[in-house]
Amino acid sequence: MLKYNTWEEQEHDFPFPSDSETKGAMEVLQWAYDYYGNELVYACSFGIEGSVLVDLISRVKPDARVVFLDTGLHFKETYEVIEKAKEKYPALNIEMKKPALSVAEQAGEHGDELWKRNPNLCCQIRKVIPLEETLSGASAWLSGLRREQSESRKNTQYINKDNRFKSIKICPLIHWTYKDIWRYAHKNSLPYNTLHDQGYPSIGCQPCTLPADWASGDARSGRWSGQGKTECGLHL
């Protein structure tokens, strides 16, 4: 089986058709669940890409494991769309993964509003370590990364060696544009985070997320604005 520790020993030619109806997404998902089965986990942030990928996954594996990293700092709209997803896909195993420290406990150990003073440490505590724990028993994980999203993501492949989490990271949506995502969402009447209607193309924790500066051409410009930070640490 293709795992992190066997990556160098195996061929990596994955001929998924990027020109198919779903630009390879359904083909990638079918292969991934056939290959990894219950050892595959989807770490979902429940932005619009998440809504689309959850719907696609439900068509391949209705009882798939979907994990949301519940930092305790998300917008109420994010929690609302998760509840709508649970109603629409009752067979999916949607888990709310919390960090070891509550927000109050983190403040007691590191001071109030750590995200303002040391956002990398805050993300490490509330996102990175929880995902490490989630992936400890998984051979591979799914992500909704798209090449169009940012400069740091433009070389993402369908199947990736993930050195950060010592795992295989599978990204079915790499060839989808933002228009593709919304076209699919509207066509299939998907529940989605209503913050997208208010200028938030990328949605994370409430203290570190602002509407995007559309003039910059960067859909993630509202994340950690002014802090010189572009990723939470999950996608290095």
TrEMBL record:
Transmembrane residue ranges: none
Cofactor: [4Fe-4S] cluster
Known catalytic reactions: [thioredoxin]-disulfide + sulfite + AMP + 2 H(+) = adenosine 5'-phosphosulfate + [thioredoxin]-dithiol
Pfam families named among the record's database cross-references: PAPS_reduct
Organism: Fictibacillus fluitans
Binding site for [4Fe-4S] cluster: C122, C123, C205, C208
Annotated localization: Cytoplasm
The keyword Oxidoreductase is assigned to this record: yes
Keywords: Cytoplasm, Iron, Iron-sulfur, Metal-binding, Oxidoreductase
Protein name: Adenosine 5'-phosphosulfate reductase
Pathway it works in: Sulfur metabolism; hydrogen sulfide biosynthesis; sulfite from sulfate
NCBIfam families: APS_reductase, cysH, PRK02090.1
Function statement: Catalyzes the formation of sulfite from adenosine 5'-phosphosulfate (APS) using thioredoxin as an electron donor.
A single GO molecular function term of this UniProt record: phosphoadenylyl-sulfate reductase (thioredoxin) activity
InterPro entries referenced in this protein's UniProt entry, alphabetically: APS_reductase (IPR011798), PAPS/APS_Rdtase (IPR004511), PAPS_reduct_dom (IPR002500), Rossmann-like_a/b/a_fold (IPR014729)
Residues forming the catalytic site: C232
Coiled-coil portions: none
Keyword field contains Cytoplasm: yes
Family according to the record: Belongs to the PAPS reductase family. CysH subfamily.
Record text on cofactor binding: Binds 1 [4Fe-4S] cluster per subunit.
Enzyme Commission (EC) number: 1.8.4.10
Domain Phosphoadenosine phosphosulphate reductase: 40-211
